[in-house]
Specification:
The chain is of the alpha+beta class. It contains 16 helices and 25 strands. It is elongated and about 105 Å long.
């Protein structure tokens, strides 16, 4: 007889006379033994011949337990029975601060690891866990709270997290407050915040909801102006005013009485100047045209002087252009003054190295009077017209990192002479001409979804227009 043992993934096999016999799964057996032992100890608490050596009492109710078990799980009991305390020599300990129903649940958790936690009882349980220094139970409460945090309970959970040093819960409640600041700022619990709490929330703000943060600060101060007005400047200075819309700065912030002091007005003035600078530029560039097909000129609006730039490699009219950083892209257009000979050529000019126009890979299709916008590191070209296909609904994009063109889904309505805009990384196509009539229809392309959707039409059909984005609005300007 040949006998050998093979251990594979904690499972033991015995090889006897050309046959394998499964003995046991060691890991599963160990788990089963732990469960069995816990059940035996828990059952011993209520048996007639119990070996329990301690009685816990609460409001006259008694609970038999094992000292060693309680000491292993709870530092409260460990200290009670390992240092010279009166309780060390007693057979019964009165748990005055914990009601009997809650004490029963804590004891059951210590023996079984199971406890029912709800939004209604979690604060009591974490309070009892802290009192008895039961870190395992405290961790269970923390996990529950992280999953249960919402707008309605985040302020209550936040106070609990601060009291008991639940760092993860504190971080998530702060995030929830920030994400829903406008709504939460109206709650009584928020209005009861101390100034340090409001400061912590504003500091954690991700700058995407500064309007809500402004209203929260104003509401908090106005709740108790006599005591809190002195904190307004400190809180106001935490706001990123540059992230606010110009209209909001003018109509909401400037009109607020609390802002009417020299320091706040100075901060507001700086924001206005920076905002104006963002929306304006000191110069603009003219690229080619019907009578100057390769000429490019930069015009300084401050000095009112123009300067000739290097000529395009290929003459073009009715082309579209995109500026991305210091780089300017000229795309498509027609090679003849009449605009009938559409081209697909693309050139790029770098204002930081203003020596020449550089040729880039050609578009997938020739296009005249198309629209173009950049989003992130890509240039999108939509619609247009050419001799072969007439009015175009096709669209494509150019990856500035890989220098490659790829097709994207077609427009719902083919068009040329339309306007395009990029608002919040969504591409908009506005108006235009379909070869028979001027269009008022508008579409938008969300790259994450990968499709065009029709949106509210223009009030008036128009073509050969331009689109401008200002303060989260798209303005359609031009011929009707």
């Amino acid at each position: 007889m040949v006998v050998c043992c093979l251990k594979l993934y904690l499972t033991v096999f015995v090889y006897v006379n050309s046959q394998f016999f499964l003995l046991c799964n060691m890991e599963e057996s160990a788990v089963q033994h732990k469960v069995w032992l816990a059940d035996q100890l828990n059952g011993d608490r209520t048996s007639a011949d119990s070996t329990c050596d301690l009685i816990l009492t609460s409001e006259g109710q008694e609970f038999r337990v094992h000292k060693n078990v309680m000491m292993l799980v709870s530092n409260y009991f460990k200290k009670m029975f390992t240092i010279e305390m009166v309780e060390k020599y007693k057979e019964s300990v009165d748990m005055k601060k914990i009601p009997p129903q809650r004490l029963a649940k804590i004891i059951n958790f210590i023996y079984s690891g199971k406890i029912e936690i709800t939004e209604e009882n979690v604060l009591d349980i974490v309070d009892d866990a802290e009192y008895t220094e039961n870190e395992a139970l405290k961790s269970h409460c923390c996990s529950f709270m992280l999953d249960a945090i919402n707008v309605e309970n985040c302020l209550t959970f936040r106070m609990c997290a601060q009291r008991y040093n639940l760092d993860e819960v504190l971080i998530k409640t702060n995030q929830t407050i920030v994400e829903n600041l406008a709504e939460i700022a109206l709650l009584d619990d928020f209005l009861q915040f101390e100034v340090d709490d409001v400061t912590a929330v504003i500091n954690q703000n991700n700058k995407s909801c500064e309007e809500g943060a402004f209203f929260a600060i104003v509401g908090w101060v106005n709740y108790n102006p006599c005591d809190r007005e002195k904190f307004f400047l400190k809180l106001f200075s935490l706001l990123d005013l540059n992230a606010l819309r110009t209209n909001f700065l003018l109509n909401q912030v400037f009109e607020e009485n609390l802002v009417q002091n020299n320091v706040c007005l100075h901060l507001l003035g700086d924001a206005f100047r920076k905002c104006t600078k963002l929306h304006c530029t000191d110069n603009f560039i003219l690229i080619a045209g019907k009578n100057l097909m390769t000429d490019c000129v930069i015009y300084d609006m401050i000095t009112r002087k123009s300067k000739q730039l290097p000529k395009l490699n290929s003459g073009r009219v009715y082309a579209c252009a995109v500026k991305f950083g210091s780089k300017i892209y000229s795309l498509g257009g027609a090679e003849d003054k009449g605009g009938s000979n559409a081209c697909s050529t693309v050139e790029m000019f770098d204002l930081d190295e203003p020596t020449e126009w550089n040729k880039l890979p050609e578009m997938l299709q020739t296009r005249v009077k198309c629209g173009a916008q950049h989003m992130k590191s890509e240039i999108f070209v939509v619609g247009g017209i050419n001799k072969l296909f007439g009015t175009l609904s096709s669209c494509e994009k150019f990856d500035m990192k890989t220098n490659k063109w790829t097709s994207i889904p077609n427009l719902l309505v083919g068009r040329f002479g339309h306007g395009t805009a990029n608002l919040r990384s969504v591409l908009y196509c506005v108006g235009g001409y379909d070869g028979e009539k001027d269009l008022s229809s508008c579409e938008r392309y969300d790259e994450e979804i990968g499709e065009w959707n029709e949106i509210t039409p223009l009030n008036q059909a128009r073509r050969c227009l331009i689109c401008v984005v200002l303060d989260e609005h798209i303005y359609a300007i031009g011929w009707t």
